[in-house]
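Why does residue order matter? Because the sequence determines the fold. Keep that principle in mind as you read this record.
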Amino acid sequence: MAKHPRRKVPSSRRRPRPARRSSPTRGSVRPVRKTAAAARRRRLSVGPGAVVGAAALAAVIGLAVTRHDSTAGYDTNPKAFVLPNLGSPGKVTLTGLRGRPVVVNFFASWCTQCAAELPVFDTEARDLQGRVDFVEVNSEETGDGGAFADRFHLASSVTAVAHDVGGGQGDGLYQALGGNGSMPMTAFYGPDGSLLTTRIGAFDPASLAAAVNLLYGIMVPA
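Structure:
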């Protein structure tokens, strides 16, 4: 009986063979999911009428700061900052302020809370002149920080008005102190230049007076 030749199946009708899965080769590294949580900074929270205990203060005194930027002879090391004056020659240095408590307040012209807060610092700086040094620092500025500072007559009330340097947007010291883009921010230093704590958010007269009293034992005149 004669054998019939097999019919060839057109290539367009053939079923495609499944692709082979390649196994990992020796020495290949699979991505590892990061599980370590980012460290969180503790900040002092003082609101109107709020009472903050000594334990809360002790928790923030050990605040670690490691970021350090330098630009053209200036320094944004939180433990020994050197910043240029805003709108005038000269520098503002933390070492030059030793002997009295130092309050460093960061502001920007685009910050509406800064506009509400700066008159509070202006008044308290006048009331505590010679007892507490107040330094205003223009940071993350996108407009005219000098005109903004003049609007609140800061040069005639606070110890110094500086502008921030370094960082991504003229915010090297702000970032080194833990700034996250929110304004205003305030840092409190002891008479020996040690950083005590930072606070993000605006102060009103009562909350700023409470913070100065808690940290420095100084009463703001009524």
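The helical segments are 54-61, 112-127, 145-151, 172-176, 205-216.
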